[in-house]
């Protein structure tokens, strides 16, 4: 039967270390706190929000986005319209803003 054999072929079953359930659950809890704090910061700092401006008079396209706080918080990209071949706009339905 399968009980006598090793389930993981790399290590014999006697050498697998047993972790108490509390340690494993603490690890998942701490990892969850880090992930949730990261997500809350991206929401509160409005990461990724911004605007796109197409100025036909000047012939310039400006793309502005907010990044994470620090030296590169403001992300501003400028392109000449003559250098752009095409623009694809994708609209996704979402909840209305505040």
TrEMBL record:
Seems to be required for the assembly of the photosystem I complex. It is a multi-pass membrane protein. One of its GO terms (cellular component) is photosystem I. This is Photosystem I assembly protein Ycf4. The keyword Iron-sulfur does not apply. InterPro entries: PSI_Ycf4_assembly. The chain crosses the membrane at residues 27-47. Coiled coil: none annotated. It holds the Pfam family Ycf4. It comes from the Eukaryota. GO terms for biological process: photosynthesis. Belongs to the Ycf4 family. Keywords: Membrane, Photosynthesis, Plastid, Thylakoid, Transmembrane, Transmembrane helix. It is found in: Plastid thylakoid membrane.
